[in-house]
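Re: NAP structure - here you go.
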Amino acid sequence: MQRRRLGSTGPLLPCVGLGTWRRFDLPPQKVHLARQVVVRALENGVRVFDTAPVYGRSEEVLGRALGGDRSRAFVATKIWSEEREGGRRQFERQLRLFDGHVELLQLHHLIGWRAHAQWLQQERERGRIGLIGATFWRDGAFGGGTAADLEAAMRSGILDVIQIPLNPLERAMEERILPLAQELGLGVLVMRPYAEGDLLTGRGRQGAAHGKPSAESLLRWGLSDQRVHVTLPATLDPTHLMANITAGAAPPMSNAERSAIAAHYD
Ligand SMILES: NC(=O)c1ccc[n+]([C@@H]2O[C@H](COP(=O)([O-])OP(=O)(O)OC[C@H]3O[C@@H](n4cnc5c(N)ncnc54)[C@H](OP(=O)(O)O)[C@@H]3O)[C@@H](O)[C@H]2O)c1
């Protein structure tokens, strides 16, 4: 089971992907900035691009930025609708944006997940969806599910992948969800590796402002958890992108190194 699920997901080896929330919500005259980052990402081995219909223009901008390079990308997007028909409409649009195929379709915040389970599985069998996932941030965020709902969805057998927060300030998923993902052989994508940038600016915690860990060490911190497959920092800055890619190529941190990083945020 584990091999079937993860073996078909080449890009889901420990690696750095690219998040698009806020950063790709660009007007038409600025799509070239997204294209520049996407080309640089692809040239340097990034394959996983995460977006969603509710990220403003980001989903459409990603489709345009990929352009003729679409086949080199692993597109992870989402649906957000309580009802089957709403989710299907979002998917039909995604098929147009991403050349008839989405590598990973995620239930955003688990909204309406039971209503979508059947048609998502049919589309996976048909091949227009590669993998099915669910994303979770916080209990009930934006009217979505709880951690208990996430556990139920994981145990239901429809999911291949989950996307969860994991950074030194957001560690709740370590307790039950990551062990369960490992037990079930699910892929794990990490959202918010920099807590929206707060971990880098020191806004997150007082103590972090003094000698705060570098972006590189924060990204390695998440990827060094052996249950994690992809981390999804969002950026529109080519220099930051390259720093993230370099961090992803570094060897995993030891437990002692991880503890020292986390101690900055205690
Ligand atoms: N499903 C969900 O519920 C959910 C929720 C949140 C996020 N996500 C996914 O996870 C992705 C990442 O989360 P996020 O966007 O909240 O925040 P994040 O990746 O934790 O942080 C993004 C911030 O970090 C900066 N940054 C990135 N790389 C940097 C570097 N090397 N050095 C310095 N600054 C750097 C970015 O600014 P610059 O542009 O200046 O680099 C941006 O301000 C999202 O884009 C989205 O795809 C999913």
